Amino acid sequence: MQVxxxxxxxxxxxxxxxxxxRASRYAAQxxxxxxxxxxxxxxxxxxxxxARAGGGATxxxxxxxxxxxxxxxxxxxAVAVGVRGVGVxxxxxxFAWAAWFGLCMLWGREPRRxxxxxxxxxxxxxxxxxxxxxxxxxxxxxxxxxxxxxxVYHAGADEMDPRMAVTAYRLRSAxxxxxxxxxxxxxxxxxxxxxxxxxxxxxxxxxxxxxxSFPTIDDVIAAYAAKRGPRA
Length: 232
What we know:
232 residues, 23% strand, alpha+beta, three-stranded antiparallel beta sheet, 9 helices, five-stranded antiparallel beta sheet, 41% helix
């Protein structure tokens, strides 16, 4: 299918506006990455990636939610010895406990936060707060790279038989430290993400070239980390 030059220009203009909007939105992080690359001599910035973390229930919330279950043996024993009125309490107990447990899970969730991965030609940085300045890990220090497999549940699939999927990469450096890089990291400059890569392959050749390519976290690991050491 042929795309007219005018159509290509319009498409290119729309894509470039989206790219510029993303660059403006994450200007602080992109600038911070450039500063750190220059400070630590890490070479060019390959990509700035972000992902959401947190949001799960804390251990304290789980303990508080399960705590009422400890009263069940006491109530059953009270019924067995004939304590009046206790049997009435047992009837609504499951419903009351379910409501309490749900509230504990809701109120006790960790706040969602943004995590960051700065990928450089000579290394990378993992940080929860882009305002902090931890030391980068050099690609030359990576001695081992391996996948992190996690059970993933799919809608409509048997919940008792989840599929195993690679959700992260574990990089071990020469000092023995392990660094886990999640595959959920998204390039902040890419306005389309995985959808954009799919569109790029489906669109006609000339139009497909209009969509810019931005490295994914998989691309970074394959190009800079995987060749540094044996895979685990």
